[in-house]
Structures are given as C-alpha cells and as structure tokens.
Amino acid sequence: MPDITDEKAVATTYPPESLYNSWRDHADSLDLAISQYIIRMVEAGRKQVDFQETTSDSVRQLRQQHAELHQELERQRQRNQELERQLHQTEYADIRSFVESNSGVTSPEIIQQVANTVPGRVAGHLDALEGELIEKRDGRYYSIET
After folding, report:
1. How many domains is the chain partitioned into structurally?
2. In 37, 67, 126, 134, which residue has its Cα 20 to 30 A from 117's Cα atom?
3. What 3-state DSSP class applies to 106?
4. What is the pLDDT, as a whole number, of residue 23?
5. Which residues span the domain enclosing 95?
6. Same structural domain, 84 and 135
C-alpha cells in the first residue's frame, strides 16, 4: 500500500457528507488520516477481485457440501433403521425362543426373563453401536458428533 510521501498529487472527490463521515469514522478507528484511509481503500478496491466468480465458486461449493451432507444423512437414517430392525428381531426372537422352551409360560415370567437378559443384550447393543454412534472413554459412553 502506498504511503503518503513528499511526491503528491491532488485527487478531488465529492462524496455525500454521510459517506464522508462514515469514511472519517472508520479512518479514526484505524488511527489513519482520512487521506491515507482513502488511498488505502482505493488501492484495495483496485485489486480487481472478481466477485461474480468468487460467488459462483462459493455457491458451487455450498451445493456440493449440501449434497454430501444429504447423502450422509440418508446413510445414517438407513443405518438407524437397520439397527432398529435388528433390535426388534433380536427381542422378538428371544421372547419366542423362551416361550418355545417354556410352553405355557405366563406374561410375568416372560417379563422376568426379559429383565434377566437385559444386561447381556445391552452389552451386545453397546458393542454394536460403539465406534459408529457412541464411543467409550474412561468407562463412560458418549455420543459421537457427526
């Protein structure tokens, strides 16, 4: 950025007073003289940033990210549905197997059997979920942020 030196030329502009006041306030906040501020802003503007191309690239990147996130969301939904299906099949199979082995069993006995097998089933479910949806640290489980 050029500095103000002894080699000077006059460049006159007539901005609206409100715009000039805005420039002056910004220059003050940057601890610059208004002339130095105007020089720097003009030079910054002359770098010819192609906003149209930048905007197009940004929009394209955002669309691509959106598509990727949507695909990941669908993959996670399918994974959740599969885990729920497996859970239901396992629960149903356990109850069916217990009833087949204990013909004439009552509802309270089935409930007690399910309660007795909870720790083993929970351990199996935790093993299946660990690394995918949850992680274990220091003996505690945490949800994995996706």
Report:
1. 2
2. 134
3. coil
4. 92
5. 76-143
6. yes
